[in-house]
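Sorry to interrupt, but I need a hand with the structure work. Please put the record directly below this note.
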Amino acid sequence: MDFQLSQQHRFIRQMMKKFTDNEVKPIAAETDRTSTYPAETIDKLFDLGVMGMCVPESYGGAGADPLASAIAIEELSKQCASTGDIVATHNGLCCDPIMTYGTDEQKAKYLPMLTKGRKVGAFALTEPNAGSDASKGVTNAKLAGDHWVLNGSKIFITNGYVAEVFVVFAMTDRTKGTRGISAFIVEKDFPGFSVGKHEVKMGLHGSPTAEIVFQDCIVPKENLLGELGKGFKIAMATLDGGRIGIAAQALGIAEGALEEAIAYTKGRVQFGKPIAKFQNTQFTLADMELGCEAGRLLTYQAAIAKAEGRRYTKEAAMAKLFCSEHAMKTTTKALQMFGGYGYTNDYPMERMMRDAKITEIYEGTSEVQRIVISGNMGL
């Protein structure tokens, strides 16, 4: 078993580290402070081939694999988790289901839009009364001649007010429960589509989150994604892949926090020596390093399983669960090392801590991940 990255993956890490240090880190604090969508950064990521990087070259993508995408998200999230979140959603939750379940015509139309066309994608599943239990959604779609009519709303949609292409889930036959859910490709310019409330969040201030409203929204008949009634299956499979992206994001946050903590404790002198020289500090940093290494192995394992076409539901859930909880622990402990300074925005620790929390919640809470893991243990 080879635990070393290939030359291609090492190159991607180097490329993304350089980009993050030069383009992301300098504006991360301001992005958070002003809750500004980093439009110029995302444009540059389109130029770099990161947006839609796993899309085949024939559709304008880079033809990379899931591990490459995870590495890119990990590196971006070390300095700005918002940017990592935007990329993870675009790649894993919009491009991926269209690649996997789309018809040849849908792929030919939408994948180039999401790569060379520079249109940002989103994924719309969650509703006010349908969070962890997606089967409780009430957004519905009815066939009317040559088009579908969607009515309802979705909440907490990442990229919500900047995205132009959405993968949307709606009830097409309520009597069938989850077997009555179907998936659709929806463009923001379709009649009856609108953006509702812009969410004000604890963290990820640069990641645009919004409510999406469908009021007699007209969706062409050919925009049904996958088979009728197979939307729930598509959503769950897509979330499996999306969890690799969130694991990578959480891993990046933890790694970034660890780097900041090491640098600060080496320079902060108390009681006559740098606090990095105290055993208590060293043991805490050692635990952080251990968790990052374990999280990296779990995340890469899941990404490789996906790349090889193997089942990876449990692996993705384990990676997401471990990395998100480790990110929260690491940022909390790192902030403590900074003392009062950590509680101010003079340093990035308070931002990293706020950003880390959501990774334990979205794309399935930690409790849901434990359900998924135990459900795949043959118990």
Remarks:
- The first strand starts at residue 121 and ends at 124.
- The radius of gyration is 21 Å.
- The first helix runs from residue 7 to 34.
- The chain has three domains: 7-113, 121-231, 233-375.
